[in-house]
Every structure is written in structure tokens, then in C-alpha cells.
Amino acid sequence: MLRIRLVEEALAERYADQEMRCPMHLCIGQEAIAAGVAAALRPDDVMFSNHRAHGHYLAKGGDVKAMVAEIYGRSTGCSGGRGGSMHVIDQSVGFMGATPIVGGTVPLAVGAAWAAALKGEDKVSVVFFGDGCFEEGVVHESLNFAALHKLPILFICENNSFSVYTRIEERQPRRPIHVVAQAHGWDAWHSDGNDVEAVNAIAIEAACRARAGNGPQFLEFDTYRWREHCGPNFDDELNYRSEHEITAGKAGDPLLRSRSKLLQDGAVSDGELDKLKEEITDEIDSAFEFALSSPVPTYADGAGKVYAD
Amino acid sequence: MLRIRLVEEALAERYADQEMRCPMHLCIGQEAIAAGVAAALRPDDVMFSNHRAHGHYLAKGGDVKAMVAEIYGRSTGCSGGRGGSMHVIDQSVGFMGATPIVGGTVPLAVGAAWAAALKGEDKVSVVFFGDGCFEEGVVHESLNFAALHKLPILFICENNSFSVYTRIEERQPRRPIHVVAQAHGWDAWHSDGNDVEAVNAIAIEAACRARAGNGPQFLEFDTYRWREHCGPNFDDELNYRSEHEITAGKAGDPLLRSRSKLLQDGAVSDGELDKLKEEITDEIDSAFEFALSSPVPTYADGAGKVYAD
Amino acid sequence: MQTENPIRKKTFAFAIREGLQQAMENDFSVILIGEGVPDPKSIFGTTEGLQEQFGRKRVFDMPLAENGMTGICIGAAISGMRPVMVHQRIDFALLSVDQLVNNAAKWHFMFDGKANVPFVVRMIVGRGWGQGPQHSQSLQAMFAHIPGLKVVMPTTAHDAKGMMIAAIEDNGPVIFIEHRWLHYVEDHVPETNYRVPLDKAKILHTGDRVTVAAFSYMALEAHAAAKALHSFMGIDIEVLDMRSVRPLDMDAVFTSLRKTGHLIVADTATRTGSIAGEVISRVAEKGWDMLRSAPVAVANPDHPLATSHHMSDGYYPGEQTIADAVIRMLGGDKVSGDYEQLCAALRHVGPHDTPNRSFSGPF
Amino acid sequence: MQTENPIRKKTFAFAIREGLQQAMENDFSVILIGEGVPDPKSIFGTTEGLQEQFGRKRVFDMPLAENGMTGICIGAAISGMRPVMVHQRIDFALLSVDQLVNNAAKWHFMFDGKANVPFVVRMIVGRGWGQGPQHSQSLQAMFAHIPGLKVVMPTTAHDAKGMMIAAIEDNGPVIFIEHRWLHYVEDHVPETNYRVPLDKAKILHTGDRVTVAAFSYMALEAHAAAKALHSFMGIDIEVLDMRSVRPLDMDAVFTSLRKTGHLIVADTATRTGSIAGEVISRVAEKGWDMLRSAPVAVANPDHPLATSHHMSDGYYPGEQTIADAVIRMLGGDKVSGDYEQLCAALRHVGPHDTPNRSFSGPF
Ligand SMILES: Cc1ncc(C[n+]2csc(CCOP(=O)(O)OP(=O)(O)O)c2C)c(N)n1
Ligand SMILES: Cc1ncc(C[n+]2csc(CCOP(=O)(O)OP(=O)(O)O)c2C)c(N)n1
Ligand SMILES: [Mg+2]
Ligand SMILES: [Mg+2]
User: How much distance in Å is there from the Cα of B229 to the middle of ligand 2?
Assistant: First the structure.
């Protein structure tokens, strides 16, 4: 969680250098969901994500160097520089890909679960998407098929109550999202998404049920996006959400909560946390160094591989 | 109901003449839904339908002559011969159109309800579709939008448990269809679709609720298709449904049930029913005469009107 | 004693089925899905018996959910399966354009070749018996515009089988378009497991007067025109069965044009934005010096098809249209007795809106 | 005292907004919907203030449900409304191809003209700042292949407003494609409520050496090339801003070709299956005698766009590409000092992946 936060804050800070020339959707404030879910998974479980992918990628064990290089548009990036922030992949750790067409990866995750079931593999497939994404018909087609075949899949709906600047009340009737999945025959779960332990506990149980053949699991987690929808900045000045709301949203900071909890429980000491932070900061610095010192590709590097051999 | 049955039986009988050269999906066995729902509507309420449209069209008051001529491919047909059985329209009675892309007209009906709401018209919009259609994502997108805006719309799901030759168990998890609509925030209704009085009673109440601003209404009716999915014949020899099932399905004949009921209640006499049948038969005969005596169009008649003036 | 293979005459539908069957026998990761795949009509016979042979774990029916199911197949494909999906009409596949264009076509590219999408999507082009505006479209040009998709339209039963096997073995997405009327047409279909390349045109009729580059069912029409032109007017045109829409085998077109200097392109789609236009534009750009006259597209008129069989009579160009285009291009005369004989031979017998079963190959 | 209208310089984005505004003032049945329409960024400023002016009953945000919402708009359109829908990227509109092609394009035709679908769908083509494979497609050719759809791509702010008003007043579906980089470009935009026809090209630069038929943003690139060719090499090319993709104003192309005899078509899409190919094929078919050399398409290479700004540098053709094509076509020499001066003038200053704000009209 801390790692995700620090990586993204570093990205945000250096975005102004104009070397990361691509759209970038930060998940700062929402890290507990990625962290809590990923910690419930095995290395060979597979994961899919959307436009807001950094947290998912890192939580699943994705290489931070390759991600930063990707955002910098270098060939050493995890997608060879072709994808940027919105298309990251690290199949070596089961991170199967993220893409920014809303809803686009949802059926793919179902397909991966289907393939696992057909091959008799003991894997679960997980996909992250937002509350806005739930409005796409393809999600419902996916709900139907996964329920029909009782596939080992987890849908993780990160409900930050916004699609870009539009509130959920402008887009959906007032009913919880997960009840729709439930009606399709899914097991459904709902909790605060900023409480990493709660998220993790649910994810463990859900993954266990999915793996045991109890069929698809729908996890809805409430959370809050701190920064602008796309880009490195805060956007409080746009006034599409009140100061009060933003303050309340940030008060739920999953990191702060988890930190207090850990310290209170005596699980870690202040000093250990500082050390951890330092280690991560070093890792991040060297990731940026790696990115910036990677050779600069040219047009030709992004022109081939249209068709598979 | 009787009229729908007799028209379709006449179509089936004459299909072998090879003058009706287009795909044709008969609703024989399912007539009670069309009849019961349409009787609950006002003339200016609007209706949309799908590939299996004859019953809906006729029940809403569509012109039988124009429909038969349409199926014969004459310019005097309700769609000028351009549509055939699968694309019928009679806007003069609020029948806004039927098309065979499964799910295609569902959002259109929502759009018509939306337009009525925006214009402050006291209208409801109705769309008929099958159990198979419910699998299309566009239906769920429509459910969401209609619920969000509390639109005056009725979805009529004719659940005959088949999509072509495929049973619903092969396509959907075991949960009732209408519960999904309910989860989206719709009022949901479910009943035997072969009992025209039950259908009508529900439709009256649902239309009333929709008109009164209570939002969208989802009506699921169970029924049975007697003949082949597409074409005039029975298809019992294909063995995709057991003899037992077919016999049971036909035993639910909505016409027979309604006839016994009417006779038992003394609402009509045998003689009156015979007379009604005779009148309808005459009407049908003259519709076929009309169609066959209509001038035969040529290629040029089907070539213009690509763009509206 | 006969040692040579005898001619094994089978329909295109049979050939598709055999191609699927052999591909599934070869490779356990091949799975087959589509609305109606295991039903009694088995997609016009093209999937008959496959569920019985390969079981319910490899041969599936599917819900009506074209975009979702396409995405699910893509997900399975990047997870090691080789799905084949069928749409009974190409018109239904329009629901899945998002997944095909945004994901299937680009996955390999955008992840720098780190993942493959081996995925065959069969789409059937409807024609006849009142298919009407929403069941008769021939939309190959839409898909052929998209880098990352291969698009093929085999014409003969022989090629249908060989290209099906090749498409399934291809490591990327292949749009496999079947004209409904071809399903009935017979050809020599060897029993062996063979491949036909996905990027090569084939000469159906040799000639040096005009090159006719034809797609799918129009290749049969062109072939019939070629035979009649030869027999009645002594004109030999070269008919190329293009077979592949993307990539286009322009080398084959240029090779033929070097002999003939005249080009007709015959397509199954409406003219504007068609692949016929694409071929002509490439010839104009790169083969300018080879052309001795203005190229001509033979394609459907630019409007949807009305359902009425009276109105559809005249919509589709055919053998006669092509023969006339050839004669006009060569400045030939149309009043001779030879021409009348040709017309008589090409005159359509029977209804215009059912497949002409006189086509019978072998090609 | 000034009586003539002064030049009113406004951006394309402003012009779109004003066109929408005036159309909504004129006709109560015009409604506006799209993801983000009323949000603080207001679709790059093109819908700013409209909800405030026309209220929440006429200006809406919408759920993420492209196909469903398109169908809902079609349903509203046949019920007497005139919806305008916006997609922030044309790539998202791929989800709605079914409703656009199967319903919107055919409703009027298949019901024999008994119903109309007055419906404008704005689609924005992305470019620059790492738009990458799924946010940079330019898919006009897919829509232009479909009978029943009109497809327009205005270039100038003047035309954006006039064509927006005309599109909204059209009784059928109009795909209204805006290149993202045009939004910044200024032009004279009269305050009046005026219309620009949906089927007419416009001459941006007069000349008699080569005809350059150009679409959307490429018309600006061609215009810049024309000015440089004139200034530095004394070559006057004729630049047609095609404005409409379907129908294509082929009359304008032929009229110009009669003077020049040479054709370049400049498109914003990938080459294969592009509308550039369509124009060339029509000229080859119907304007054969006018052409004195092989026509040339200037279009994007046949692969998706990589996100990396290093890799996108070189993907898009531009002013220089067009100028070079002209010189090559005329057999001109590229080693002269004049040519060097031209290149220097066209040399791009600043980053390649942000709009060149030096374009400023009026055109
Ligand atoms: C099909 C499609 N429609 C619209 C968009 C533009 N878009 C990108 S992200 C986004 C918001 C998605 O909201 P949500 O799913 O809640 O995710 P969040 O951004 O809140 O994490 C939108 C509308 C898109 N990328 N794809
Ligand atoms: C998008 C689409 N997919 C597939 C088809 C082929 N098709 C026509 S009717 C039908 C069955 C529909 O089943 P259902 O909705 O239950 O209606 P029923 O035929 O039972 O009345 C199918 C699959 C189609 N017309 N459109
Ligand atoms: Mg959200
Ligand atoms: Mg059914």
C-alpha cells in the first residue's frame, strides 16, 4: 500500500517534467483495495485491470522499474513503451494486462477463468473496475456467463462514486451495485474499501470460495479518489465535489488507518516504518533512474508486431 | 387472441406457396401475452417488438391487410415491402416498429419513453422480447437508464425457455429473469403467460404504475412456442424437446383456456364464438386477396429512401 | 488400379466442418463456441457432430451476448486456448466490434508482442429468401480497415477447409467470412489435414484480356462469366479468387495485370468504402503504368437490401454484370449473335433469391 | 463607421458550442447527451454553459453504456426529439456500431420512409500526448461504408458551426467527426445562425498543378504545404477541404482535376481501407482520363499507434509529407535551395505530440 502510494506520488511529482507524455490515472486514496485483494491471491492467479492500473499492477508484484519506464515511453517498459500508463502488463506475475476502454477487460478476465476451468487449473481470475464501468452492458454479459459456468472469478468493483466528474447518482438508480450481481446468482460482498484488513479478509474468503467451485464472487468496495480523474494534480478548484466531501474522503486514508492500527497493535514500530519508507524510496529512485537512463526508442520501435508470428 | 392465431395459421398454411419469401417467426401458443398486454394499453401508448412480431402488431391494432401484404413483399405492405415479416410497423396505432437484431429495439423503446417524459406526454412505452434477448448487454444498459430516470416503460419478457433450439439452462444461471430487473430497481412481475386474464391484470396495474410516475415495470411471462423457431412448420422431429414437453406445452393453450372460461362464465356462447371466427376468417381471406392482388413491385421500388429528405 | 486420389466432392459446409474437426483433433486447445453450434441445425451443418466427438467441454452453445462472448474468447485466447466463434450472420457481429477492434486486433501490438490472441471468428454473409436489411450485409471492409485483424473469404470448399485449419493455427485473430450461398457448393476436398495460406489469391480461370479480382461468392460469378466469355465470344479473362481481404494479395493482381492491362474488381458488398475500391486504389497508386483502361468495380448498389423478393431481384450483380463489364472494357460489341448466345447461357433459371446449385466446381 | 462584419475569430471548440447553442435555441426538440457533457471540462469546452442555459431536461450526462444510449437516442429520435450525442473518443463509439449500423442507418429505409432518425453523433479523434492504440483511431471509413449514414469531418471553425447546425437539422443520422487538434484552431465564426452543407468540399487554396483532396486535420496540413510550396517553389496546388466523407463531393474533385491532372488524397486514418483509397478508386473509375499520373494517398501507416511519444514521432504524415508528394509527383527536384528553404519553413517547432497552435486561419 505504502509502495503504491509512494510510487504514485513520485509519478505525480515528476509528471511536470513533461517526460511522461501520456494520460495517467492515479489511484491515490484507493490503494487498500489493490493491496488487500492482491494479498489474498496466489502468484499464479491472474489479474486484469483498467485505466487506473498502477496499484493493481504493483500489488500483484509487477516490476516497478518496468512500469516507470513504460510511462516514460521507453522500450524497457513493461509494454515495450507501446502502452504507457493505461496499458501495463507483467505476465510473469500473473498481471495479464490493463486497458482503458471502460469494461474492455472484464470479459477477458472471465475468459481467463473459463480457460483455467477448461484446463482444470486451480487458478482464480480477478478483474478490477469502477462504479462507472458497471453501467456497460458487457459487464452484465460477463456476469451471466460466469454465473452460468460457475467460473472461478472475482469481480472487484472499486466504487469511488465518480465516473470522471459525474456522480453515481447521475448515472445509476439508487441501489447498491452488488445486489445486481447477486441477482445474477453471484456471491456478493460489500465493505469499506479503505480498510485494508476488511478488504483482505473478504478477498481471502471470496477467493477460497471461487477456488472451491462455488462460482463467481462480486466484491464491491467503497473508496475515494483524491486527485483528478486523469493527471497528476488535485482538482479541488473545479468544485464538482465540495470541500467537505473531499476532507471527509481523505479522512478515510487507508494508509493512515493501517499505520495507526499497526503501530497500536505493536506489529511494527515507527522506526521500522521509516526504514520501510526509505527502502521503497530508494527502489523508486532507482526505477526512475532506470527509466531515464533507458535508451530512447524511435518510431521504428513502435511500428512492428502488428501480427503475431 | 383468436385473430392472431387464425392469421398465423393462415400464414403457415400458405407459406408453402413460396410467395412469402422471407424468414417468419410465428407466435402460435404465445398469443395471450400480446393480447393481454395490448388490451391494457391506450391507443397512443407506443409499442416495439422483435423478430416474432405478428401478435404484437395485431394486438396493438395493426392493419392485417398491410401485414400480409408486407410478408408477400408488396409495396402495399406496412413497410412498403422492404421489411417482410421481421420488420413491421404501423405508427398510426402506436406500433413503432419491430426488427430482428435481438435486443435491437429494447433501448429504442426506452428512448421513446424518455421522449414522452421529456415532452410531458402521458404515454407509456412497451417492448416485447424473449428470454434469449435478456442475455444481451444492451438490455441491462436499458434497465439502468430507465430506472435512473424512472421512465414510463414496460418490458415484457416472453419466456418460452428457448433461444432457437437452445434451452435457457444452457444460456443462463438458474435464477428467475425478473429478479435481475428488480435488482436494478424495477418493479417486477411474473406469471403464467398463457393465462390472458392474468397477463392483462398485471399489465393493467403495471401500465397504471408506470403512467403514475412509479418508474419502469418488468413483466416476465412464461409461455411455450409450438412451432419451429423460424418457419411455418412444427419441428417435433428434431427432438430438441421431448414429446412429453411438447404435449405439456400445448396443453397450456391460451386460446382453449380462455374459450372454456368464457363459455363457462356465460360471457359468450358457442354460436357467438363461431360467428366471430367466421368474421375473422373473412377478414383474413380478404387480407390475402389484398396482398395477392396488390401490384408486384420491382427493384426500383426498394432502392430509394436511403436518406430522409 | 487407381493410385491417384480420386476427386472427393464435398460441399463448402462439409469442408468447414472437416477443417474444424481436424484442427480440434490436432490441438486440444481448440474450442468452438457460438449460438446454435451444438443444435440440430448445427450452423448449416458446419458443426454437425462436433460436440458428440469432442464433448461439452470443447464445443459450446453460448448466450446471446456477442460483445461479452468475444471478450471472453479473447481472454481464453491469451490464456492458451484457441477459440473459434461463429456468428450466424455477420450483422450480429456488429455488436462485438469493440472487442474485435479495440482488444483482439491490438492486444499483441500494444503489449509489445508479449501475448497472442489466436482466435477465429466465423461470420456468415446472408443472401436470399428475404434476408432483408439486417441479415444481408457484407461487411468485410469494416474489419479489413483494422490493422491487426486478418480477414479471409474463401470461395471453394477446398480452400474453406484449408484456410480454416490455417486460420485456427494462426497466432492472431482471423475474421473468417463465409458467404451463405457458398455452403452448398461442392469441390474437391482432400481428406488430409492441409493448409491453404491466408494471404494468397488463386487463379480460377486463366486469360490475358482482363483481370477480374473477385471476392467470395463473386469469384464464382466471375468464373461462370469467364467460361461463357470463352465459349461464346472467345474472350479469355483471368479470374483471381482473392481469398484474402486483409492482407490483399496485390502481387497476384499485379502479375495478372501485367498480362491483361485491364482490371475489374468484383465484391459482395455495397460499393462505397468497399474492398473493391481498396483494390482499385492500390492498383491506381502502384500499378498505374500497367493499366490500359479505367478499372471498374462490380459491387452492390449503395443502399440496404429490401426484404421483398420482388425488390431484391436486380440488387445483386452477377455473371452477366461481369461479362458485360468485360465486353464494355474491351470495346466489344454487344449486338452480335455470340453475345446473345452468351446471354442465353448466363440467363438465370429458377428463382433469383435461392442459391444457384449449378455451380459445382471443382475449381 | 464600420458596416461590414468584423472578423470574429473563434476556436473550433467555441464554434461547436455556438452551433449547438443556436440549434437548441431554434428548436426545442434538440437535446444533448454524452459522458461529461455538463461536467467542468464540458467536452473540451464544446458544451460549456449549455446545461445552465437549457436546463437539465435538455442537456444530460449519461451512464457508460454506448450501445444502449445510442439505441435510446434513436428511440427518442423516432419519437420526435433531435438528440445530439458525444463520444469523447471515436474509439468508444465502437461499442455502439450495432445500433448505428443496424438501426440508425436503416430505420428510414427499412420502414419505407415512414420514420426518420434525426440524430447527430459527435465523435472525437484523439491525437498526441500518448493517446496510444485505443484512443487515437480515426475510423471514418467504417462509418462511411454504411448506406444511410452521413459522415462529416469539418476542418475550420466556420464550418464546424455551420455543419453542426445543418447536421442537427438533417432528418437522418449524421456522424460528426471532430479531430481533437482542430478544437484549438481559430477562424472567422459569424455570430449568425448559418448552415454549411453536409455534402460539399471547399477550396482552401487555389492552384493548377496538383489537386490535394484532404480530410479534417490533414486539410490544415495540406494548406500549410500549399502556402510553403507557393512561397518557396512557386508551385500552386489546389487544396480541397473535403468536409464530408459520405457523401463524397466527387464533383469538386473532378472539377479540380480537370485543371491539375494530378491527385493526392490526404487522410487522417490508417491507409488500408481508408477513405483516401475510396477517393482514389472513384477517380480511377470515373476520372481516368483526367489523371496524368498515378494518384497518391497520404495516410497513416498500417499499424496502431504506440503510446510512447518517442515512438509516435514519425507516425503521422504532415505538411512536409504532402509537399514532398507534390514535388515527387511533378518530377521536381529536391536538392535546390528553394526546397531547403521550404523544408526549413515547414520544420516543426516544439513537441510533435501537441497541437501546432500556429495554425490560425481564417480559411
Ligand atoms: C467505453 C469507454 N467509454 C468512456 C471512456 C472514458 N472514460 C475513461 S475512464 C472513465 C470513468 C470510468 O469510471 P469508473 O469505471 O468508475 O472508474 P474510475 O475512473 O472511477 O476509477 C471514462 C468515462 C472510456 N475510456 N471507455
Ligand atoms: C444479435 C443477434 N444475435 C443472434 C440472432 C439470431 N437469433 C434470432 S432470434 C434468436 C432467438 C432469440 O430468442 P428469444 O429472445 O428467447 O426469442 P424467441 O425466439 O424465443 O421468441 C436468435 C439467436 C439475432 N437475430 N440477433
Ligand atoms: Mg469510479
Ligand atoms: Mg425464447
Answer: 9
Residue C356 has pLDDT above 70, yes or no: no
**Exposure b/e, D321-350, CB count within 10 A at least 16 = b:** bbbbbbbebbebeeeeebbeebbeebeeee
Stretch D125-140: mean pLDDT: 97
C313 near B297, Cβ under 8 Å? no
If you average pLDDT over residues B103-120, what whole number do you get?
98
Q: Are C92 and A60 in contact (CB under 8 A)?
A: no
Q: Which of A260-269, B39-48, C110-119 has the lowest mean pLDDT?
A: A260-269
Same domain flag for C124 and C165: yes
Residues of A in contact with B135 (CB under 8 A): 141, 144
C288–D contact, CB cutoff 8 A: yes
The mean pLDDT value of chain D amounts to 95
pLDDT for residue C288 is more than 70 = yes
Query: Taking CB atoms and an 8 Å cutoff, what residues of chain C touch B85?
Result: 130
**Cβ within 8 Å, pair D285-C296:** yes
Q: Which of the other chains make 3 or more beta carbon contacts under 8 angstroms with chain B?
A: A, C, D
pTM: 0.98
Q: State pLDDT tens for residues B59-95.
A: 999 999 999 999 999 999 999 999 999 999 999 999 9
Reported confidence tier of residue D363, pLDDT bands at 50, 70, 90: very low
Task: Cite the DSSP H helix spans in D27-121.
Answer: 42-45, 50-54, 66-77, 90-93, 97-98, 107-110
**Residue D4: which pLDDT band, with cuts at 50, 70 and 90?**
low
Residue of C nearest to B18 (CA): C129
pLDDT digits (tens, 9 = 90+) for D28-75: 999 999 999 999 999 999 999 999 999 999 999 999 999 999 999 999
Q: Does the residue B308 lie in any domain?
A: no
Where residue B15 sits, what CATH number does that domain have?
Answer: 3.40.50.970
pLDDT in tens, A165-181: 999 999 999 999 999 99
pLDDT for residue C363: 37
Judged by CB atoms closer than 8 Å, whether chains meet at C67 and A107 is answered as yes
pLDDT over threshold 90, residue A277: yes
- Say yes or no: C148 and C88 in one domain: yes
CA torsion through residues D258, D259, D264, D266, sign: negative
Tell me, yes or no, if A176 comes closer than 8 A to chain B by beta carbon: no
pLDDT greater than 90 at residue C349:
no
> What is the domain count for chain D?
2
Are the Cβ atoms of D39 and A298 closer than 8 angstroms? no
* B116, closest residue in chain D (CA to CA): D79
Domain that holds residue B107: 2-295
Cα angle, residue B307 at apex, residues D23 and D59 outer, rounded to 5°:
30
Predicted local distance difference test score (pLDDT) of residue C3: 54
Q: Is C66 a known active-site residue?
A: yes
Question: What is the number of the ligand 2 atom nearest to the C-alpha of C35?
Answer: 23
- Residue D255 shares a structural domain with residue D303: yes
In this structure, the answer to whether residues D76 and D151 fall within a common structural domain is yes
Residue B303 lies in a domain: no
Q: Is residue C218 in some structural domain?
A: yes
Q: CA nearest D74 in B: which residue?
A: B108
Non-local CB neighbours of C89 within 8 Å, separated by 6+ positions: C123, C124, C125, C126, C135
Q: Is residue A43 part of a domain?
A: yes
A83 inside domain = yes
**Could you count the other beta carbons within 10 Å of the beta carbon of residue C328?**
13
Of C36, C68, C310, the CB nearest to B164: C36
- The count of domains in chain B is 1
Question: What residues make up the domain containing C144?
Answer: 9-188
Statement to judge: residues C148 and C122 lie in one domain: yes
